[in-house]
Design brief:
Layout: E1 2-9, H1 13-25, E2 31-34, H2 47-53, H3 57-60, H4 67-70, E3 73-76, E4 81-85, E5 90-93, E6 98-106, E7 110-112, E8 125-127, H5 131-140, E9 146-150, H6 154-165, E10 169-173, H7 186-198, E11 202-204, E12 209-213, E13 224-227, E14 232-234, E15 237-240, E16 244-246, E17 261-262, E18 274-276, E19 281-285, E20 290-293, H8 297-311, E21 324-329, E22 332-338, E23 348-354, E24 357-364, E25 367-374, H9 380-389, H10 412-422
Parallel strand pairs: 1-2, 1-6, 2-3, 6-18, 8-15, 9-10, 9-15, 10-11, 17-19
Antiparallel strand pairs: 4-5, 5-6, 7-16, 12-13, 13-14, 19-20, 21-22, 22-25, 23-24, 24-25
Helix pairs in contact: 1-8, 2-5, 2-6
Length: 423
């Protein structure tokens, strides 16, 4: 049995960030990275571009191909960890082998939530979480005239946008009253709705898909869906985009798990030699003031970096993150962070709007806890900095949504410290 100083289960954003940080402080300790995908770490938010633009996984990679060998990292692709023994400090793999470890990081991320819908196993039904998903969808497109996307969140809209680019007729079915209901406030959501409609997407809200049908007895392929209002929509493709959940199965019965794996601010689990980072664990939400699962790419990188540094013997503290989205939909730039709908008993807010843009900043106790930007998102980075740093903005809240708001509007002590990083 081979023993490694560090074993990292998961080779996406969090796992790769941890490996980079380990190597900053430990140049010789052996590292094993396990991934059940066939590709080295790539940017999953870019998979829609494989469908719309033909982008290959090589152009999505987060590190050059030679990185792993150059850094002395044993990267095993298409290899799944199936069991952790915390007492023997071993990990059993799906190829029948077993490895042992001194320190272990669980960076398994999240998996798509699969709704209970009759006919969900038919051919032509896909999730939209991996490059493999995007490949399989692309292969099927020559047979597709119409598609139904179940879910109007950021994953569903990314899929719908890519499919429209390829000329597919798209219907989004969302069970909530509006699109992006956890990402945008009603005004921001309305702007994206209008952009989607203008691009030719059909949107049905307050409705569920009850069954996925195969109307041809000799085939198990999708040919329509039936909605909760009994309407039927013909389609040859269905994409499931109703959300994600932490992939905690390896940790069950081993470490403390709540909504995700419970970690402290050094990303350590209830077993001192085991760590977790990214979508699989729950960390402190700066905006909401409580622990939460935050399945967002930047948070995975930040928490993975802390985990890797601590595993390598450094003192590092993860200060928390919050929900964060920044992506264009149907030609409209959208960015949001933290709380997007305010509670008048707790929050106040300022807004501004004009041709082609809308901004909203939400405050609690004179600090920024939420941001919505649609259209012109150029100020979003600075506003997000204020949120992360918990800067007191008493007396200058209105400035934050003005057209000329910029770096020099920030307190001098803040912008001087941040100028190098921002530039």
């Amino acid at each position: 049995m081979v023993t490694y100083e560090y074993v990292i289960i998961g080779a996406s954003a969090g796992g790769l960030a941890a490996a980079r940080e380990i190597r900053r402080f430990d140049f010789s300790g052996s590292i094993l990275m396990l991934s059940d995908e066939r590709y080295p770490a790539y940017s999953r938010p870019l998979i829609a571009r494989h469908i719309s633009l033909g982008m290959t996984v090589a152009t999505m990679q987060q590190a050059p191909t030679a990185f792993y060998q150059d850094q002395g990292i044993d990267l095993r692709l298409a290899t799944r960890a199936i069991r952790i023994d915390p007492h023997a400090r071993t990990v059993s793999l799906d190829d029948g082998s077993c490895v042992s470890w001194h320190q272990l990081l669980i960076a398994t991320g999240s998996i798509p939530t699969i709704p209970e819908i009759r006919g969900i196993n038919r051919r032509g039904v896909f999730t939209f979480a991996t490059y493999h998903d995007a490949q399989e969808i692309s292969r099927r497109l020559p047979l597709v005239r119409s598609a139904v996307v179940i879910g109007g969140g950021f994953i569903g809209l990314s899929a719908a946008d890519a499919l429209r680019t390829r000329g597919v007729d798209v219907t989004i079915v969302e069970m909530q009253p509006r699109l992006l209901n956890t990402v945008l406030d009603p005004e921001g959501s309305s702007a994206v709705y209008q952009a989607a409609i203008a691009s030719g997407v059909r949107i049905i809200t307050d409705t569920r898909v009850m069954s996925i049908n195969g109307d041809h007895p000799q085939s198990d392929a999708v040919s329509s869906v039936t909605l909760s209002n009994y309407a039927r929509i013909p389609c040859e493709l269905v994409i499931l985009a109703v959300g994600v959940k932490p992939r905690t199965e390896l940790a069950q019965g081993i470490v403390s798990i709540d909504r995700g794996i419970v970690v402290d601010n050094s990303m350590r689990t209830s077993i001192p030699s085991m760590f977790a980072c990214g979508d699989v664990c729950q960390t402190y939400d700066l905006a909401r003031g409580r622990d939460a699962v935050l399945p967002i790419w930047p948070n995975a990188v930040a928490s993975g970096s802390v985990a890797g540094a601590v595993m390598a013997g450094e003192h590092r503290v993860y200060g928390g993150g919050t929900t964060f989205n920044a992506i264009p939909y149907f030609g409209v730039s959208v960015a949001s962070a933290g709380i997007v709908e305010y509670d008048p008993a707790v929050h106040d807010y300022v807004t501004s709007r004009g041709p082609g843009y809308y901004r909203k900043v939400i405050f609690r106790d004179d600090t920024v806890v939420g941001i919505v930007a649609v259209g012109d998102t150029t100020k979003f980075g600075l506003l997000h900095l204020l949120l992360k740093r918990k800067v007191n903005v008493e007396g200058w809240k209105d400035i934050l949504v003005q057209e000329d708001f910029g770096l020099l509007f920030l307190p001098e002590t803040l912008w001087r410290n941040e100028l190098t990083a921002i530039s």
